[in-house]
Automatic annotation (TrEMBL):
EC number, UniProt record: 3.6.1.15, 3.6.1.6
GO molecular function per UniProt: magnesium ion binding; nucleoside diphosphate phosphatase activity; ribonucleoside triphosphate phosphatase activity
Function: Has nucleoside phosphatase activity towards nucleoside triphosphates and nucleoside diphosphates.
Organism: Robertmurraya siralis
Signal peptide: none
Segments forming domain DUF402: 18-156
One Pfam entry name: DUF402
Catalytic activity entry: a ribonucleoside 5'-triphosphate + H2O = a ribonucleoside 5'-diphosphate + phosphate + H(+); a ribonucleoside 5'-diphosphate + H2O = a ribonucleoside 5'-phosphate + phosphate + H(+)
Keywords in alphabetical order: Hydrolase, Magnesium, Metal-binding
Superkingdom: Bacteria
Family: Belongs to the Ntdp family.
Name of the protein in its database record: Nucleoside triphosphate/diphosphate phosphatase
Chain sites annotated for binding Mg(2+) 1: 87, 103, 107
Length: 176
């Protein structure tokens, strides 16, 4: 697997289990790139949905992807604090074209006070049946939902107190 270079812009491609494209983020600046970890930053980037609709993100965000974890985390910097959107997903790959992962429907939204909600359980169940997620994937995802909740409660990884601020400062150096 190739490794994205710090400072370079990359696309992020999200797929569904059936191989269909789900969503594309047009440009994210790589802040840290290794075989196991990619941290990126973006602000007002164009997002294209599977049906061709586009929209633009509203605020700066720091993205956290790990090659051994079945989730990724987006920390969105808003006036009233940092909100996190966590996608249960396959570990990422980077193929030189884009950072890619499979979105498995379940999401956790985390608020600035670190309370959180598990979202889209009904969508997950529907897609699990429609796309025939293997039992092993179902078990891995349930395990990683628990792991992600522990990380949130323990303020671990991207949820650590200064994580988003430190990486956002790095992102701003590339924007100048």
């Amino acid at each position: 697997m190739e490794v994205p270079m710090e400072g370079e812009p990359i696309q992020i491609h999200s797929y569904k289990h059936n191989g269909h494209i789900h969503r594309v983020w047009d440009e994210t600046t790589v802040l840290k790139g290794s075989r196991n970890l990619v941290i990126g930053g973006n602000d007002r980037t164009i997002v294209t949905e599977s049906d061709g609709r586009t929209w633009v993100t509203r605020e700066p965000a720091i993205c956290y992807f790990h090659a051994q974890l079945w989730f990724n985390v987006i920390g969105m910097i808003r006036e009233d604090g940092i909100y996190y959107y966590c996608n249960l997903s396959s570990p990422f790959i980077f193929d030189g074209e884009a950072l890619k992962y499979i979105d498995y429907d379940l999401d956790i939204k985390v608020f600035p006070d670190m309370t959180f909600n598990l979202l889209d359980e009904d969508e997950y169940e529907r897609h699990r049946k429609e796309m025939k997620y293997p039992e092993v994937i179902d078990q891995i995802l349930k395990t990683h939902v628990d792991k992600l909740m522990r990380w949130i409660r323990q303020r671990k990884g991207p949820f650590a107190a200064d994580f988003i601020d430190i990486w956002y400062e790095r992102y701003l150096t590339y924007r100048r």
